[in-house]
Design brief:
255 residues; alpha/beta; Nucleotidyltransferase, domain 5; 2 domains; 5-stranded mixed β-sheet; 23% strand; globular; Type_III_PanK; ATPase_NBD; nucleotide-binding; kinase
Length: 255
């Protein structure tokens, strides 16, 4: 009963094959492909995998990329299934003004975060930070209600915006430091501090709203770049979206 989880982001497709469609299932294999190389997955990364019995994915990159992925899934006899954010699922209540318009990846990550909170045995709020092409900072309270969240430009988008809108600035290869003394470091540090400030502000707001300190979870390809700048206890969970997809698939099978 192997299970394939897929997350199609704005830049890359991430995938993970699990021993079964349930939370805590053993991870058998995983990988990632840039959009440009999706059309080779059936002949490369997926060719030697055992055939999954089912799959579930989230896709925010658009219908064209999703259909290209489905063509690669024809390698196996499985029906592609893609999540659409609902009003409630797996213990999370969707507080978005229009629930179905919430990003599918954000919804899966929130479900994954809720599973982690419940596994601790003492419900508490959680703040979910996904750091990729864009950065999202989403809050859920101790009862699993999604309160809302921020969307910010990621590191690359910030730097390219400065390059395009400011004479003489080029996308740098600088470092993140406390007091930059060159332009490259100033640009990199400025972006990191801006994102870290947003996370810390939302963490304070969530504490004020709920009266309890939140579990702070970070995920996404650039989470390791942001994490050192955040002056709060946190955990980086690379598989957070997949953990949400596992819980959703288990729930679907139980219906």
């Amino acid at each position: 009963m192997t299970f394939l989880a897929i997350d199609i982001g704005n830049t890359r497709l991430k995938w993970a094959l699990y021993a079964g469609p349930r939370p805590g299932a053993r991870l058998l294999a995983h990988g990632a492909a840039f959009h440009e190389t999706i059309d080779t997955l059936a002949d490369t990364d997926w060719k030697a995998l055992p055939a999954p019995a089912s799959m579930l994915g989230c896709a925010v990159a658009g219908d064209v990329v999703r259909r290209r992925t489905e063509q690669q899934l024809e390698l196996w006899d499985i029906d592609p299934r893609w999540i659409v954010p609902a009003a409630h699922e797996c213990g999370v209540v969707n507080g978005y003004e229009h629930p179905s318009r919430l990003g599918a990846d954000r919804w899966a990550a929130l479900v994954g975060a809720r599973q982690r909170v419940l596994a601790e045995g003492r419900p508490r709020p959680a703040l979910v930070v996904m750091v990729g092409t864009a950065v999202t900072v989403d809050a859920i309270d101790a009862d699993g209600h999604f309160l809302g969240g921020l969307i910010l430009p990621g590191f690359g988008l910030m730097l390219r915006a400065l390059e395009m809108g400011t004479a003489g600035l080029k996308v740098p290869t600088g470092e993140v430091v406390d007091f930059p003394t060159n332009t490259s470091d100033a640009l990199m540090s400025g972006g990191a501090v801006a994102l870290a400030g947003a996370v810390e502000r939302q963490h304070r707001r969530l504490l004020q709203r709920t009266g309890a300190s939140a579990l702070l979870l970070m995920t996404g390809g650039a989470a390791v770049k942001l994490a050192p700048m955040v002056d709060l206890p946190f955990e980086i969970v690379d598989t957070l979206i997949f953990e949400g997809l596992l819980a959703m698939q288990a729930h679907r099978l139980a219906l």
